[in-house]
Design brief:
- Helix 2 runs antiparallel to helix 5.
- It is built from five helices and no strands.
- The chain has one domain: Four Helix Bundle (Hemerythrin (Met), subunit A), CATH 1.20.120.50.
- The chain is an all-alpha fold and about 130 residues long.
- The protein is globular, with a radius of gyration of 15 Å.
Length: about 130
């Protein structure tokens, strides 16, 4: 069973590219969960966390580009939320050099992302639909 189950009716932003990217982020967090629960090495956990950070940054830039082109009024505040997530992922990566990873990291990644999609990204979904 997956740590995060994608529920289209709950998380879809009605934009195929953004939905696919969101699903990829969910898959990567699920992989991190599996690695952590299987007792994978710190290096393996750092690798997937690094990949998640890079992919999240790529996704956020694509999403911000879409919002900018659409004249979404909250694009700047949305960018700040993205920046926060990237900073936190970077901090977790650095912390893993000194101490083992714990489930707090995994739950933060899950909770922040899913709440962000459900609350913040749904706002732009509604905005784009109204255009």
């Amino acid at each position: 069973m997956s740590f995060i189950n994608w529920e289209s009716e709950k998380y879809s932003v009605n934009h195929d590219v953004m939905d696919k990217q969101h699903m990829q982020l969910v898959d990567m967090i699920n992989q991190f969960h599996d690695f952590l629960n299987q007792g994978e090495s710190k290096d393996a956990l750092k690798m997937i966390l690094g990949k998640l950070r890079v992919y999240a940054d790529t996704h956020f830039k694509a999403e911000e580009g879409l919002l900018g082109k659409s004249n979404y009024p909250e694009v700047e505040s949305h960018k700040k939320l993205h920046e926060y997530y990237i900073v936190k992922l970077s901090e977790f990566e650095k912390a893993m050099e000194k101490a083992p990873c714990n489930s707090d990291v995994m739950f933060f990644m899950k909770d922040w992302l899913m709440e962000h999609i459900e609350k913040e990204d749904k706002k732009y979904s509604n905005f784009l639909k109204s255009k």
